[in-house]
Amino acid sequence: MNEPILSLDLPGIQKVRSGKVREVYDLGDAFLLVASDRISAFDVIMPNGIPNKGAVLTQISHFWFEKFAALVPNHLLAKADGPLPANLQPFAGQLAKRSMIVKKAKPLAIECIVRGYLSGSGWKEYKKSQTVCGIKLPAGLTESAELPEPIFTPSTKAEQGHDENINFEQACDIVGKELATQARDLSLMIYKAGRDYARQRGIIIADTKFEFGLFDGKLILIDEVLTPDSSRFWPADEYADGKGQPSFDKQFVRDYLETLDWNKTPPGPKLPEDVVARTSAKYLEAYERLTGKKL
Which CATH class is domain 106-238? Predict the structure, then answer.
């Protein structure tokens, strides 16, 4: 198994930001986004990463950006297999398959979340109040049940700590009614198209998070799209409501961490080789199922 890339060294290229997984660089008239192989669980970055994870996230996003290009404009400036600009050529080894050159869009100040199934924080809230993010749902739904219709449940973007769920009216207050409505309608449309396609390939996309930005005054799709990091992917052939589902992403990592006497604060514990290998295999399987190709 190849070594995971946890950090990047691009001398002479200005780094703007370093997130849990992605590094953002300023190329002057564009941004360079690079997905590392870092993995976080319970908001803590683990000391060792997952080989191929960054490449999988980037290539799945490229796949969907291309697939949805007619539905919604996006931030891509180069195709997945496009040549790197001359100043990035020396770093081709580090950037291969895991980088995107994108427009400098101004991100919306809300996260655009769509839920098609009852899981996670949505299930917790439903049990208490029969609502998800304040949206009333039918009685009698079980954990992991498919919702009658997907729902748009935006959240704030927290600089520190956790994002907070908000209702649509609060989203309108933050970004304005016109943009919030446009983001909601696009989010629901893209989710439904992606969900229907993925279902045919044996993957249930239970929920997902989209990011939109403004570029030349228009709303465009940015960041990553319908990846195992931004969405809950479940294997369709194992799906049964009434319980939690096996997943395509960090399941093995979370399951392992839950067995430890660890208080879920940094530093994270080193992941054993078998957990790393099984997690890497799941990411690769998600890519292969969706695209029909090997990475």
Answer: alpha beta
Element (H, E) at 96: none
State the pLDDT at residue 163.
81
Question: What six digits make up the tokens of 47?
Answer: 């000391």
- As a whole number of angstroms, the distance between CA 127 and CA 55 comes to 38
Number of neighbours of residue 213 by Cβ within 10 angstroms: 19
* pTM of the predicted model over 0.90: yes
CA gap 115, 158 in Å, rounded: 20
**C-alpha closest to that of 13 among 21, 3, 5, 23:** 23
Q: Do residues 119 and 206 make contact, with C-beta atoms less than 8 angstroms apart?
A: yes
Domain chopping of the chain, boundaries: 1-104, 106-238
Nearest to 234 by CA among 266, 272, 195: 195
Q: What is the largest CA-CA distance in the chain?
A: 59
The predicted-structure confidence for 278-293, as pLDDT tens digits, reads as follows 999 999 999 999 999 9
Q: pLDDT tens across 112-157, in order?
A: 999 999 999 899 999 999 999 889 999 999 999 999 999 999 999 8
Rounded to the nearest 5 degrees, what angle is found at the Cα of 110, between the Cα atoms of 119 and 15?
110
1-104 CATH fold? Phosphorylase Kinase; domain 1 (3.30.200)
Q: In whole angstroms, how far apart are CA 222 and each of 18, 176, 235, 284? A: 17, 19, 26, 23
